[in-house]
Specification:
- By secondary structure, this protein is an all-beta fold.
- The protein has a single domain, classed as YVTN repeat-like/Quinoprotein amine dehydrogenase (Methylamine Dehydrogenase, Chain H, 7 Propeller).
- The protein has no helices and 23 strands.
- The chain has a 4-stranded antiparallel beta sheet, with no helix packed on it. It has a 4-stranded antiparallel beta sheet with strand order 2-3-4-5, with no helix packed on it. Strands 6-7-8-9 form a 4-stranded antiparallel beta sheet, with no helix packed on it.
- The protein starts with 6 loop residues before the first strand and ends with a strand.
- InterPro entries: WD40/YVTN_repeat-like_dom_sf (IPR015943), WD40_PAC1 (IPR020472), WD40_repeat_dom_sf (IPR036322), WD40_rpt (IPR001680).
- This is Guanine nucleotide-binding protein subunit beta-like protein.
Length: 311
Amino acid sequence: DRATVRQAPHGAVAESAAQLDEGPAEEGLAAMLLGDASALIASQPTEIALPAAGRPSFAQKLTSWSGSHDFVQSILLLPGGLAVSGGDSGCVVLHTFDERADEESSQYVQELRGHSRAVMCLGSGSDASTIFSGSVDHTVQQWDLAAGGRPKGCFVGHERSVHCLTLAASTPSGPDLLFTGSRDHTIKLWDPRTSVCQHTLRDHTGSVTCIGAHGWKLLSGGGYNRGADDDEVLSVDTTLRLWDLRKMGSHARPIWSRDVPSPSDPLYGGGPGHQLPHGDPILSLQVMGDKVLTSHGGQEWTARIWDLKQP
């Protein structure tokens, strides 16, 4: 199968994944969010199948910590052994860890306070000293770690919870742009230097639950509502959409997307009107060069690896 490299059943599935950008994807660290009050750092990100007991099948535990949140919603790994977590407490919490040492090496560093509700997503760009956090309070906060975690900007514009975010440059030499996905069905493009929204992408028909970028590719996935702030049940968008960062604008459309997927679709269908073949809500995605790792809910808890190479 051209698109599906691996599909594994889950007894439980990670809702969020983070990876260090140092070295090949297969050799980096992966952080898998297990949905309880503890975060875990594990090796071998290419195998994320979780049995009913909730432990990765083929991952060596390096360290863990607990007590920072009632429920962990997001995690981010930064170069130099710094782990960042966000959760229902509304705080962004920093820990240090040493991948060469034992579990006791992890240490609490600091809490960053600025959100009024749960922190659902975290991210950083080319400058790892600046991080971003998205929240159920509809905002994104920018933090300057080099200045002791000082707030650097607040991004206001989404009408519902901010589920996901990523940073990417529209050109190889250009500045990072911030992309955020929300329960309001939109993706917003921001200038981190001014905290101003540049464009809003409106093609999703439900919550945008995950987003990632590599090179000119921007991928977004739809799934369940996370961090719901009322009892309204919104439509579940189960599409994975591909956007061209070189063609961002007020009327930008995905290269392909379709509401009803077909398993026979090729990865690239020759233009608009096509998508990756799947039908389950997308919980998370990680772009690794020409590969995309996705985790899914629905009838079967699965993880899939997709090939993004042009035919």
